[in-house]
Design goal:
Blueprint lengths: L2 E4 L5 E4 L9 H32 L5 H47 L5 H37 L3 H17 L1 H13 L12 H4 L23 H25 L19 H10 L5 H13 L4 H26 L2 H20 L8 H28 L4 H22 L5 H42 L1
Helix pairs in contact: 1-2, 1-3, 1-4, 1-5, 1-7, 1-9, 2-3, 2-7, 2-13, 3-4, 3-13, 4-10, 4-12, 5-7, 5-10, 8-13, 8-14, 10-12, 11-12, 11-14
Pfam families: UNC-93 (PF05978)
Membrane topology: Multi-pass membrane protein
Subcellular location: Membrane
Length: 457
């Protein structure tokens, strides 16, 4: 073994350890790019289309019921499919076949009715759990190989790999939302239409989804030919993602050992419950209650582009910086940024001017989301390297429970109530994260003490 060095998270790293990797550094980095680019294309379509659901398909709550169905199916899929599918198909073909499930949902939006949208949403949800588990497992495994080849810690390289992945992944918010906003923009203007002060007063925290405001033309559905054009573009992007992954991604064989959960020193159940409470995506409330209601559906994309740009830049930046300061400062940053943003949204009533406020809120949310996306995935990759398929499937399960609750109640309660709920679970989530860090640091200190004792003996 090589020389030991300290790490900000209390980990040891081996320098100069001999290791024969199944693939070269270049191939590992090439596969990181192919995986990231495939997800960029797929989620250019899906994230932008899901951003529009609460407004584009708001009749009878179809859009939100479709999103709810996605995450119900995803939860059920998490229980059974990821380890089974990955063990039989491998990570590469699990990614490719799971991506096909997303295309069915995008096609259903061409004729958005319950009979098509709900089954298509269920198909997407079934494919989503294996997709994300295979992606996380693939990146974790190749990051571990790269770390051994370069003499750095797995935690550092996993953070950098997930940071790069989410840099590309979050730019999907740019391209997809740019497409929707350019297609949906009115021909004569790109601002807002005239809306009465009375109608605007019902936006923001006062927005009630059970009340249909016929006086607010900002919430009107775009023309059908424009909706179809957007759907066709998104389908083409998703199909391209499938082809790229199928052709250019290398297959890998996963490392397995007999090391089980009891050797991890950390309750998997507690860890998963922690991040279920870290409910990370109340921006659907921001989209419908603030952007659509205040400045029109065609401006959703432009505002969300800001969110995507900031999220992407912060993802790669935080992924690099974590090796110097550890995870804790970044989780604290996300807590204060998201908490402060939600309190501000409770107090602010949207108006057409100044528009810059909408972009500021989106940017702040992107900062916090970059932390949560990169750091949770990286922390999972480090803690559960040898049980990665099951661990990431369970992570998606608990995350999806939050989505289900969010979208299911979205049709029935006012935005201010939703924000109070978000603040409550955010505080609980941060408390749970502090507990997890304490348990993990205690385990590291205990292991170091045991190693020192055995050395002296």
């Amino acid at each position: 073994m090589g020389e030991k060095k300290d790490h900000p998270n209390g980990l040891d790293m081996d320098v100069g350890t001999t290791f024969t990797s199944p693939m070269s550094k270049f191939r590992i980095l090439k596969n990181l790019f192919v995986t990231s680019f495939g997800f960029l294309l797929l989620f250019t379509s899906f994230q932008s289309l899901s951003n529009l659901q609460s407004t584009l398909n708001k009749a009878e709550g179809l859009g939100l019921w479709g999103l709810t169905t996605i995450y119900i199916a995803l939860v059920l899929s998490c229980f059974f499919l990821p380890p089974f599918v990955i063990s039989h198909l491998g990570c590469k073909w699990t990614l490719a076949f799971s991506m096909v499930c997303y295309i069915a949902y995008m096609a259903a939006n061409l004729y958005a009715v319950f009979a098509l949208m709900i089954p298509a949403a269920a198909i997407l949800g079934i494919g989503a759990a294996p997709l994300w588990s295979a992606k996380c497992t693939y990146l974790t495994q190749t990051a571990v190989w790269y770390a051994k080849m370069t003499g750095t810690t797995s935690d550092d390289v996993i953070n950098r790999f997930f940071g790069f992945f989410f840099l590309m992944f979050q730019t999907s918010q740019i391209w997809g939302n740019l497409i929707s906003s350019l297609v949906f923009s009115p021909k004569t203007q790109n601002s807002t239409v005239d809306v009465s002060p009375e109608a605007l007063a019902k936006c923001g925290p006062n927005f009630d989804p059970t009340v249909h405001d016929v006086n607010n033309t900002n919430l009107n559905r775009p023309e059908e030919d424009k909706v179809r054009m957007v759907c066709y573009i998104y389908i083409a992007f998703a199909a391209s993602a499938v082809i790229i992954v199928a052709v250019f991604l290398d297959k890998i064989k996963l490392d397995k050992t007999e090391n089980t959960k009891e050797n991890k020193g950390l309750s998997l159940h507690l860890f998963l419950e922690t991040f279920w409470h870290f409910w990370r995506n109340p921006y659907q409330k921001f989209i419908l209650s603030y952007i659509s209601c205040g400045i029109g559906i065609w401006n959703i994309g432009f505002v969300m582009i800001t969110y995507g740009v900031v999220d992407a830049i912060c993802s790669i930046t935080f992924g690099r910086l974590v090796q110097f300061v550890g995870h804790i400062p970044f989780f604290a940053l996300a807590f204060f940024v998201h908490g402060g943003t939600q309190i501000a949204l409770l107090l602010w009533i949207p108006k057409p001017e100044p528009v810059i406020i909408y972009y500021i809120f989106a940017a702040l949310w992107g900062i916090g989301d970059a932390v949560i996306q990169t750091q949770i995935n990286a922390l999972y990759g480090y803690l559960f390297t040898e049980d990665s398929e099951a661990a990431f499937a369970n992570y998606r399960l608990w995350e999806s429970l939050g989505f289900i609750f969010s979208f299911a109640v979205g049709n029935f309660i006012r935005t201010d109530v939703k924000l109070y709920i978000c603040l409550f679970v955010l505080f609980n989530g941060m408390f749970g994260y502090v507990v997890v860090e304490y348990l993990k640091n205690s385990e590291i200190k205990r292991n170091k003490k045991d190693k020192g004792l055995s050395t002296r003996l």
